[in-house]
Task: structure prediction
Amino acid sequence: MPPATPSPPSSAQATTGGIVSVCRDAVYFVPSNRGPVCGSGLRSPSGTACPRKGDVSFASCTPTLKSHKNGKCVAPEDASCVVILGTTWGCVFPSAGCLSITAPTPSPTPTDDDSS
Result:
């Protein structure tokens, strides 16, 4: 198993990986050997690489996040590249999910009984 990536990439490393935000979590660096990072606004993602269990975030880690432990955020499981909304793809920890979107409620339609 490759070691976790605990520190932010240097400018030299930035060409050997990508930075990706996990929905409802922190920002992680994904090494290039995992392929292009997940994300796009198209019908298919530009890449599918997401953080893996044990990866350590380097930005946007706050104590309110589920992955926050002992002052740092550690990926609790492998994130998946999924459709977040519409055609927007992103990384999501399966146990946390992403957006809580409910289907819109249709407007009531007048019926013959409604007319007075």
Q: What stands out?
A: The chain has a mean pLDDT of 82.
